[in-house]
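## Example record

The block below lists the input lines for one assembly entry, exactly as stored, with component labels intact.
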Amino acid sequence: MKKTLSILAPLAVVGVVIGFTFAMTAPIDAYQGIFQKTMYVHVPSAWLAYISFAVTLIASIGYLAKKDLRWDRIAASSAEMGVFFTGLALMTGMIWGRPVWGTFWDWGDARLVLTALMFIVYLGYLALRRSIAEPTTRARRSAVFGIVAFVQIPLVHFSVSWWRTLHQQATVLRPETLTGAADAPIDPLMLRALMVNLLAFTLVYATFMVARVWIAKLEDEREERHALENIEIAGAAISAPDFDGGFDD
Amino acid sequence: MSHRWFIIPSVAIILVAIGFFAWGNLNKNLVYYLTPTEAVEKRADFPDGERFKLGGLVVDGSIQEDGQVVRFQISDGQTTIDVVHEGTPPQLFKDGAGAVVEGAWQGDHFESDVLIVRHDEQYRGVDEEGQPYEPPTGS
Amino acid sequence: MTAAEFWRQVFEIARKDLKVEGRAGEVLSITVPFGAVALLLLPMAIGTEKTMLAKIGPGMFFGVTLLFGMLVAFRQSASDTQAQRELLTLLGIDPAATFVGRSFASALLLLVFEVILAPLTVILYNPPLVDGWPWMLLIILLVALGLAFVGTLAGAVTAGVRTRSTLAPLLVAPLSVPLLISSSQVYEGLRLGRSIIPWIVLLLAMNLALAVVGVATAKPLEETSR
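Predicted structure tokens for the full assembly:
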């Protein structure tokens, strides 16, 4: 893991620097002005939030199928990263929303509401993990909750978006954008900057994931050693009788 | 895994339902609002103060910012209603934009305090002639 | 196991849960009054203007059902001790049958909660009777079932945890958002005479999805004592 990390970490740093440069040199949005630059942080964060939670789902299923704690460590680490990126997406969303829509919080923006809900769901997931001490019980139960949570997300998404959004079609995942047609709804230079940042953020995610899983493994090993050291030896509670002064009375 | 008889068909049904939600093109009629024509027709069912949502297109050139309130007209091409909106409109609110306002009749006009604008998802730089890109109007 | 056997186990588990709850009486004597007091207190906080109360009434009802009704799923009589779980395993009860049976019992109790609080909402908030209101009966049923499923799942993953009484509601609340939005939007749709089919399909899909996850994870979730 140390070796993977020594390759990934510099890559991530270089990626972030290039991403920042691209974001700053991309054209300024005609309508939203300089504020639209928030997109280069906001969209990758939201993207990685979904990726993280999808990884948690896969690792949860993996744990239930294989009963190997390695899967559980991946699920937990990815959920932590997911909560971080969800928080970042929420904050940048609000910072973007304030100048553009006039409010920090816009009930009309289904994606903002959904992100806030996902943030709470996975805070609950982490709270559940903290509440259970026994490693296999914790792994089993959080795996089940990880699955329940992810299965519910599309349904929460539909309910929230039908509720308030007038129409919603993703900008990037449209046929015109993907084929690079001239009528794509985003400036090609902006799209390039966005893609570079997506890649850079994904590298950051991968770096932190490898590091976090490694730490989790070390933690588990330490706990195991600790458990072995502290096993009580039979009879340890019985102390030798104290003869001095014991029989004089 | 046991209970395949239940799980496999159910997963199939759920996937079909999700596909229907995602690509079934039903997003249009799910924010429940009345069009201006309906709102006028059902005027009797919605007395002053009875809240409902009203949706349509902002009439070109009708927007007047007036201190704390914004006055504009909302239309479905057939009927036009005067709206007095209290609060700052979102930046994407402009002539020809699709909008849904929430509020109630107040005499001959509609008083709203919630304004949802149809988001235009276009991000454009300034084009070759130096003209800002204009989002398409209409629905 | 044949289908008939499975459903018999489901029936017996539900009957057992309801019997135990009948003795404890937690839902009727604690949860329902708690929900009622919430309906009574909220207007004190937000004002008693009649048109506003009429407007928010249905939403209040579903909000209270969600936040307070979910406690039905975490009632004491629905949490097993290790010994009880082991006994069920020894008796050869399918864990999936336990999940379904327990969910059905909770759904029935939730329905009782809703049936008592619905008239109270009508009295206190006086919302207008909309055309096609019988649809709301179906919605109430689907909400009870959905909340019971998600509550039973959350109850199972938090069983025996010290912080259960607050952790379980934290897990359930954000996941039951579709129940809350679709139920109140169906009322809104009926009021304006619009199609409500998508919301009902969404509720059905949610119930089915939760049932699938519950059945599929029942076996791995089963605790074996070591």
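The radius of gyration of chain B is 20 Å. The beta strands of chain B are 52-58, 64-66, 69-75, 80-86, 98-106, 109-117.
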